[in-house]
């Protein structure tokens, strides 16, 4: 994976390229953004949330069909208690705003991950957002909260084992399609492109099964500084790739 640096040149034209159907974004760098400015980490998360809203709407407007963003991982609970508390407050504010702000958008909201660790209030807000948006015709926006790729696979294996136990599935019938059908993203295409701002070279437990053949673009931009033009550059870079899926 090569580091893609922000270029000081005219904004690229997307009119002649084939866009990915599904984009994943690891929204990384909020804490470092705040530290560089002498601010608390919570300020970085607030700025990152504003960037998320902007980029989500932009993806919808240019015709991306699926967008999956990594908002809070299963490992993020290990962060300082005050930071986790600030994130939970931010999630609540966002979910309350989303019910109002996205009502005029065509975006379908979905939340992937283990909801059992969240408060009843947060879970109810997730469910309300999903119910309010489910019949919209536009982009599906997956927000990964308390999500981890390994945890997702454990969840899928348990579901498959339960199907076998009750006689609904023969062990010999278990294949890649069966596993995919038990993931949080079931029914959706795998991500074509995964973007990681902040310059880190890790997948960080994000969409481990689904990203087997995803193209990665690593960018030296902290997430709160990420702009629509940066997404454009990533899309141009993706369009240059020769996706062989293991073939020649």
Structural summary, described in words:
The model has no long low-confidence stretch (mean pLDDT 91). Helix 1 (30-36) packs across helix 2 (41-62), helix 2 (41-62) packs parallel to helix 3 (81-101) and helix 3 runs parallel beside helix 4 (120-133). The protein is globular and about 60 Å long. It starts with a strand and ends in an 8-residue tail after the last helix. The longest helix has 22 residues, at 41-62. It is built from seven helices and seven strands, in the order ββααβαβαβααββα. The protein has 248 residues and is of the alpha/beta class. The protein has a seven-stranded parallel sheet with strand order 1-7-6-2-3-5-4, sandwiched between helices. 40% of the residues lie in helices and 15% in strands.
List the helices and strands and how they pair.
Layout: E1 3-4, E2 22-26, H1 30-36, H2 41-62, E3 66-73, H3 81-101, E4 108-112, H4 120-133, E5 140-147, H5 149-165, H6 176-180, E6 193-196, E7 215-219, H7 228-240
Parallel strand pairs: 1-7, 2-3, 2-6, 3-5, 4-5, 6-7
Short structural description:
The protein has 248 residues and is of the alpha/beta class. Helix content is 40%, strand content 15%.
Percent in helix = 25-40%
Q: What is the string of helix and strand elements? A: EEHHEHEHEHHEEH
Largest sheet: 7 strands, parallel
What structural class should be given to the helix and strand makeup? alpha/beta
Mean pLDDT: 91
Low-confidence blocks of residues: none
* Rg over C-alpha atoms, rounded to the nearest angstrom: 18 Å
Report the principal-axis shape. Answer: globular
Number of strands: 7
């Amino acid at each position: 994976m090569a580091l893609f640096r922000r270029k000081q040149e005219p904004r690229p034209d997307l009119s002649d390229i084939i866009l990915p159907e599904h984009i994943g974004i690891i929204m990384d760098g909020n804490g470092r953004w705040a530290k560089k400015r002498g601010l608390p980490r919570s300020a970085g998360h607030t700025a990152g949330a504003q960037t998320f809203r902007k980029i989500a709407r932009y993806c919808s407007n240019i015709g991306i069909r699926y967008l999956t963003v990594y908002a809070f991982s299963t490992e993020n609970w290990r962060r300082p208690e005050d930071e986790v508390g600030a994130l939970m407050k931010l999630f609540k504010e966002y979910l309350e705003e989303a019910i109002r702000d996205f009502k005029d958008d065509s975006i379908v909201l979905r939340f992937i991950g283990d909801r059992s660790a969240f408060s009843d209030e947060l879970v109810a807000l997730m469910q309300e957002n999903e119910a309010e948006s489910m019949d919209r015709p536009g982009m599906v926006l997956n927000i990964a909260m308390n999500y981890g790729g390994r945890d997702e696979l454990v969840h899928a294996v348990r579901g498959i084992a339960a199907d076998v136990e009750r006689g609904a599935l023969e062990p010999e019938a278990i294949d890649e399609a069966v596993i995919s059908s038990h993931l949080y993203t079931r029914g959706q295409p795998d991500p074509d492109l995964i973007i990681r701002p902040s310059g880190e070279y890790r997948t960080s437990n994000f969409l481990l099964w689904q990203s087997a053949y995803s193209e990665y673009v690593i960018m030296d931009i902290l997430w709160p500084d990420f702009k629509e033009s940066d997404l454009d550059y990533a899309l141009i870079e993706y369009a240059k790739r020769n996706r062989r899926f293991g073939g020649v």
